[in-house]
Amino acid sequence: MTEIHWTVPVAHPAFPGHFPGRPILPGVVLVDQAMRLAASVVKPGVAIRGLGNAKFFQPVAPGTSLLFRYPPATATALRFEILADARIVASGSFTLGDCP
Questions:
Q1: Mean pLDDT in residue range 27-33
Q2: Opening angle at CA 53, ends 52 and 56, nearest 5
Q3: Which of 34, 42, 58, 90 could bridge 46 with an S-S bond, Cβ 3.0-4.6 Å?
Q4: Cα 61 to chain centroid, rounded
């Protein structure tokens, strides 16, 4: 299992509009970060081709320390979990395929 830590920047540009007075990180930003970090996990010659699924369980605030966990990939999928303080805040999977 590969684990990668990332702290949500307090000044992330998504916060001012999402939501004023109680900023939370949009799910699309969590998935984008999971995909960016997953690129270092997949084997050479394999590419992330799409999002298989995603579920969001807890809101993520500015400055939150996150742990991205990636179990070993199968030939066609890479699962991920995103945790904050040992709580799963999101999970999902990416579809994999050969590099173009």
A1: 96
A2: 155
A3: 42
A4: 15
Residue (of 92, 55, 47, 86) closest to 71 by Cα position: 92
More confident residue, 65 or 16: 65
The pair of three-digit structure tokens given for residue 80, joined into one six-digit string: 């991920």
User: Does the predicted model carry a pTM greater than 0.90?
Assistant: yes
Q: Which CATH number fits domain 2-64+72-98: 3.10.290.10, 3.40.228.10, 3.10.129.10, 3.40.630.30?
A: 3.10.129.10
Q: Would you kindly state where each structural domain of the chain is located, as residue ranges?
A: 2-64+72-98
Predicted confidence band of residue 97 (pLDDT cuts 50, 70, 90):
very high
Q: What's the pLDDT score for residue 5? A: 97
Give the tokens for residue 81.
Answer: 């979990």
Q: Residues 6 or more apart from 21 whose CB is under 8 A from it?
A: none
Q: Is 5 designated active site?
A: no
User: What's the chain's Rg over C-alpha atoms?
Assistant: 14
Which residues are registered as beta bridge partners of 7? 65
